[in-house]
Write a structure and sequence with these properties.
The complex is a heterodimer of chains A (about 800) and B (about 350). Chain A is an alpha+beta fold and about 800 residues long. Helices cover about 25% and strands about 30% of the residues of chain A. Chain A contains 21 helices and 43 strands. In chain A, strands 3, 4, 5, 6, 7, 10 and 11 form a 7-stranded antiparallel beta sheet that branches. Chain A has a 7-stranded mixed beta sheet with strand order 29-32-33-39-38-37-36, sandwiched between helices. In chain A, strands 13, 15, 16, 23, 24 and 25 form a 6-stranded mixed beta sheet that branches. In chain B, a hairpin with a 2-residue loop joins strand 6 and strand 7. The chains are: A alpha+beta (about 800), B alpha+beta (about 350).
């Protein structure tokens, strides 16, 4: 809502309060003023001029040579490019030395050989938005009414010496979608009275009901419909002051009748509609639901197909307006209109919202109906509009209105105790203080002991319950005046859950290991949604996505993480390590919520480390990433529970990928991205993992127990084994560990050789075995005995022989 | 013989003092003190001496030996030290060359903000509550006093999956779920961080996915003044002890009265700058007293229980705190962006 500071003074005395001070006060007591626009900022030297003579420029077809009286003796010559400039016009002239918005300085100039002493201005050149300039002036200069006085300040005449407060209204304060509503609010803040607009009707001796009958077939949607008739109107421009007020509020002037309905919309917050009575085709108004498939052309010349959800105003048969949204082309007021049928009605919010949404027609009118208009202001708005039409369109107002009224208007009566107010706010106010606040708001208030009863006026439809009264008291008391305390009562333990704590540990560990945390989008494309998914499920698709790229909830984090690598690689960061924790979404059918499983994904690409001047360089590989995971599982006490199983995973390198199993159950994968995909993404060798974070964080682990420091020496035996190439290290390790029993404390691979010195199909793998007994020093014989068992087992179970 | 010994002593000491290397010194040791050395030789000739002379000469010979040995040792030490110094000199390196970098990542800036807020409220006795990102219409809207058809819930602003299931538009459903779980009993003190989704075109100030963090306190006798005090502590701990706060009335369907909180601009200190649009104040969060309908729907007696709630956007806080100018940076994950958030403040 745009509120003109000058216009507001019609209703409230603002003396001593500047626009910016007012903005601050309004903001602090409840309605945020998002900005104060000084309309004449950066404009000087614009006066009213009289075009005494206009002739064709001798050297330019599109230019006019004008002699303009600007009230400084002899007329000055101005060259003007506007197509609508004409002799006899009163116009806005930026004189030599004037400044226009954008710091545009007007200088004496020669245009195609002819001297020009200033500029005749269009409204946009004076800083008025093009979309609010009346159509007749949109392509050219603005023309003042003939009574404009030559040489006077054109900016003042255009009411631009004003400031406009932009109110950011929350949905509950629809009452401030009108100048009167703002006036009540401002009066309460300043402790002033509200002066209501003038309605001084002199109806002619004819009754509106003789001209029109009104019938409503949908009382629930339209509980009140009043039709007034104004005859003998002369369509023409509305007064300049009205046009300028409309423009300041963001509405484009049309003609006097339409402008008056818009003016009342701004003044009362009540949308009105003017029909051309003679074009109705009947003497009847019937309000009903539209028929499914019924066609109707709105006044923007678009044919609309209606449904029974939409409320229409008809002439008894044909629709003439979409209720509360837009009128019809068939009954629109034109320059030939002489009799106006003025609609003042109450349409319910839901009805209007449905129609405006279905047809994409959001207007000043529909916005007000949607949020709820004051039921007590409907008739007054109609009367005031009729009065203005008599005054500014020469019309004659017929007596009364043709009406259907089933609207029950009961102001809200709410009672509250002083104790409740003070308890909720945390204050020590008295009954008198509270009553004074409601009186400022012009709410009727009575009290008995400490019980306070408030009757809220119908314009404040948002006041319904005790808490609404508390808010009114609190905001006018001043939020900043409320004391600062802390909750009292029983203490609550502040602590992360085990899961949350472990998740933080995971993040810290991975970051310590060199990975940056990324956060990516949960919505993805159909193509990516299925990639790398640990479980295949139905897609969870948005009903109305904004784009195909963000239409499906992810089943895996990996595609997004690879996008991150791609983005960075394309920007000279092709060595990178990132991870993300976040939910993936597993459908459980349409009717229930999906399972949200928290995943952990990581990706490393390019060089793992490089220290150039020392010649150190290491590219990422499988074992770099696996090492990170092993460290993570060790941190979480899961080393014994996790195994890696060679596997094939879509989009992963078939020979360099493992599934990660937790207690035998697949919870993720680790490996190299398939070279084809690496190439598509323009990545260097890239290794990735993704696993169910939920699975590893919810896995119960043994409590930490101190085991003592070994007091006895260990004995290490190294063995080099020759095995089939296909035999994997994990199997050999398992054999060694089983056979080694409890004396075997550590098994480490220290060499792997698959070169030409080996027999075809064989490889050599060397282990270092560490034996120890925590209770005593082992003898060589004891170790040899166990070690022999190990070698036997290796030979029998894996055909492994010692390398000669 | 006596003279011979004195001569040898002098001779040896002179050579020792002139020696330049440990090897030379060792040769001297062998030459004078060794078994084939002249002193040994002198001692061997002692048999020719009288019984009186013998101990005298013996003592003298030992004196000479010791004198040579002492000087020799001193010289040896001196030469060794010189050798060490020479070795160290040859080992000197350029200490200004860069070290081997330690590979280390860091929190995403939003995680950093969220954890900071979590920790602050944990210290005040709050727990961290989380909930689903795909929500039932009931928890996202209805339980929060936003019945179907309410003007503040516009279908156009939410990502619906079915008529009853949508991506949550705020973290408030976690409040509703937590209250429901507590079955009408207090106290509740929670902080709820998480991702939320709205139908917005991504641009410098809008993102279809963003973070929210909310707080909820429900108990007997929770007052608006408690909210005021809590928010002031939050603002000062989060943005600096010299920040001032300002509360403004506002509207949210799930709170009544509702509040918006501004803090004095941390860039200009409240004098007015571009960040605070010359107002000196920056809007940080929305809050209010829990609406009685919300309490009742979750099974709380609104005559007995009151509560306050507040909610804020980690993106906005990070943008203000660190001077980030485009919300999309948080989701692009440019490493040149991410790595700037490693420093501890």
């Amino acid at each position: 809502m745009f509120v003109s500071y000058k216009w507001l003074q019609d209703y409230v005395d603002l003396s001593g309060v500047s626009a910016s001070e007012l903005a601050e006060k309004i903001t602090k007591s409840g309605i945020e003023v998002e900005g104060v626009d000084v309309l004449n900022e950066g404009i000087t030297g614009v006066v009213v001029g009289h075009v005494v003579e206009r002739v064709q420029h001798p050297n330019a077809d599109k230019l006019s040579k004008c002699q303009v009286d600007i009230g400084q003796g002899e007329p000055v010559q101005i060259i003007c490019g506007a197509p609508n400039v004409a002799q006899g016009q009163k116009v806005a002239v930026a004189t030599v030395g004037a400044v226009l918005p954008g710091n545009f300085k007007i200088k004496r100039a020669k245009l195609r050989g002819e001297e020009s002493n200033g500029m005749i201005c269009s409204l946009t050149e004076l800083g008025i938005e093009a979309k609010v300039v009346a159509k007749e002036y949109s392509e050219g200069i603005f023309v003042f009414p003939q009574d404009a006085e030559v040489g006077t300040d054109a900016i003042a005449l255009l009411n631009r010496n004003d400031e406009v407060l932009e109110l950011g209204l929350t949905p509950n304060r629809a009452d401030c979608l009108s100048m009167l509503g703002v006036a009540y609010e401002v009066a309460a803040i300043l402790g002033k009275d509200v002066k209501l607009p003038e309605i001084d009707q002199q109806p002619v001796n004819e009754k509106a009901t003789d001209y029109i009958t009104v019938k409503v077939d949908a009382n629930e949607d339209n509980p009140l419909y009043a039709a007034k008739v104004i005859k003998n109107v002369k369509i023409g421009p509305s007064p300049l002051w009205m046009q300028t007020r409309l423009m300041s509020a963001g509405i484009r002037p049309h003609n006097n009748v339409v402008d008056i309905t818009n003016y009342i919309l701004l003044e009362y917050g009540q949308p009105l509609h003017a029909f051309d009575y003679d074009r109705l085709g009947s003497k009847e108004i019937l309000v009903r639901r539209a028929h499914d498939g019924e066609k109707f052309t709105t006044l923007d010349d678009v044919e609309r197909t209606l449904t029974s959800d939409h409320l229409v105003i008809t002439n008894g048969t044909e629709p003439i307006a979409l209720a509360g949204v837009m009128g019809g082309a068939n009954s629109e007021v034109t320059s030939d209109t002489t009799t106006v049928l003025l609609e003042a009605a109450y349409f319910t919010g839901g009805t209007v919202r449905k129609a405006s949404k279905d047809h994409g027609l959001r207007s000043e009118a529909s916005a007000r109906f949607e949020k709820g208009v004051d039921p007590n202001r409907v008739r007054a708005a109609g009367e005031r509009a009729a009065y203005l039409m008599a005054k500014y369109a020469g019309g004659e107002v017929l007596e009364g209105a043709s009406e259907v009224d089933t609207l029950t208007v009961e102001p809200a009566v709410v009672s509250i105790t002083l104790e409740k107010i003070n308890n909720v706010i945390g204050t020590n106010m008295t009954v008198a203080e509270v009553e004074a606040i409601f009186e400022r708001l012009q709410f009727a208030v009575t009290s008995e002991d400490e019980n306070i009863t408030v009757t809220a006026p119908t314009r404040r439809g948002d006041i319904k319950i005790e808490e609404d009264l508390i808010e009114e008291v609190a905001r006018l008391y001043g939020y900043d005046n409320i004391p600062k305390t802390l909750p009292i009562g029983s203490a609550t333990p502040g602590k992360l859950s085990d899961y949350q704590e472990k998740r933080r540990i995971v993040r810290q560990y991975l970051e310590g290991a060199g990975l940056f945390q990324a956060v990516t989008y949960s919505l993805t494309s159909e193509e990516k949604a299925a990639q790398f998914a640990l479980e295949k499920r139905d897609f969870i698709r948005l009903a109305m996505p904004m784009s195909e790229d963000r239409s499906i909830l992810r089943l895996s984090i990996m595609p997004q993480l690879l996008e991150v690598l791609k983005y960075n690689s394309a920007r000279q960061n092709d060595s990178l390590a990132v991870y993300e924790t976040g939910a993936v979404f597993l459908a459980n059918g349409n009717e229930v919520l999906p399972e949200e499983r928290e995943h952990l994904a990581g990706a490393i690409t390019g060089l793992w480390h490089s220290h150039s001047w020392q010649g150190e360089k290491k590219a990422v590989d499988f074992y770099v990433l696996k090492g990170i995971l092993e460290g993570l599982f060790a941190k979480l006490g899961l080393t014994e529970s996790v195994t890696y199983v060679q596997a094939k995973v879509d989009n992963m390198h078939p020979g360099r990928t493992a599934e990660i199993h937790l207690n035998g159950e697949r919870i993720g994968f680790v490996g190299q991205v398939h070279p084809t995909m690496q190439k598509e993404l323009d990545l260097k060798d890239t290794y990735v993992f993704e696993l169910s974070l939920k699975a590893i964080l919810e896995e119960a682990t043994a409590p930490l127990r101190y085991l003592g420091i070994p007091r006895f020496p260990s004995i290490t035996r190294d063995i080099a084994l020759v095995v089939d190439k296909e035999t994997v290290a994990g199997v050999l390790k398992d054999i060694i560990q089983t056979a080694g029993g409890k004396l075997l404390k550590e098994v480490n691979v220290f060499d792997l050789y698959e070169g030409e010195r080996m027999e075809e199909g064989k490889k050599s793998i060397a282990y270092s075995l560490k034996y120890m007994d925590p209770e005593r020093t082992l003898t060589d014989e004891e170790v040899t005995k166990v070690h022999t068992q190990v070698l036997e087992a290796l030979k029998n179970q894996a055909g492994a022989v010692l390398r000669g | 013989m006596q003279e011979r010994l004195k001569e040898l002593q002098q001779e040896a000491i002179q050579k020792i003092e002139q020696s330049q290397s440990l090897k030379e010194l060792n040769d001297i040791r062998v030459a004078y003190l060794g078994k084939k050395g002249p002193i040994t030789e002198v001692l061997r000739g002692m048999g020719k001496l009288s019984a009186e002379e013998r101990p005298i000469m013996g003592a003298l010979a030992n004196e000479v030996r010791e004198a040579i040995a002492t000087v020799l040792e001193a010289k040896q030490k001196e030469l060794e030290e010189a050798a060490v110094l020479e070795k160290l000199a040859s080992e000197s390196i350029d200490v200004t060359l860069p070290g081997r970098p330690v590979k280390v990542g860091n929190h995403h800036p939003l995680t950093r903000i969220i954890e900071e807020i979590e920790d602050l409220f944990i210290g005040m006795g709050y727990q961290v509550a989380e909930g689903p990102e795909v929500e039932q219409d009931y928890y996202n809207f209805e339980a929060l006093n936003l019945p179907k058809g309410h003007p503040a819930r516009d279908m156009q602003d939410s990502f619906y999956i079915t008529d009853e299931i949508l991506l949550r538009t705020h973290t408030s459903p976690v409040q509703a779920r937590t209250m429901e779980k507590n079955q009408g009993k207090g106290p509740i003190k929670i902080i709820c961080p998480g991702k939320v989704y709205r139908r917005d075109n991504d641009d410098a100030t809008h993102s279809h996915q963003f973070m929210q963090i909310e707080g909820l306190v429900v108990g007997e006798n929770i007052r608006m003044s408690d909210l005021h005090g809590t928010l002031e502590i939050f603002a000062k701990k989060m943005f600096g002890e010299d920040r001032e706060i300002r509360l403004r009335p506002s509207f949210f369907p799930f709170t009544e009265p509702s509040v918006e909180m501004d803090i004095s601009c941390m860039i200009c200190g409240g004098h007015g700058c571009n960040v605070c649009k010359k107002t000196g104040w920056i809007e940080i969060l929305g809050a209010g007293m829990v609406h009685p309908n919300v309490l009742e729907m979750a099974g709380y007696d609104s005559k007995k229980y009151t509560g306050f709630a507040f909610g804020m956007g980690p993106e906005r806080i990070a943008m203000l705190k660190y001077g980030v100018d485009d919300i999309r940076h948080f989701y692009t994950n440019d490493v040149r962006f991410l790595k700037q958030f490693s420093k501890h403040e």
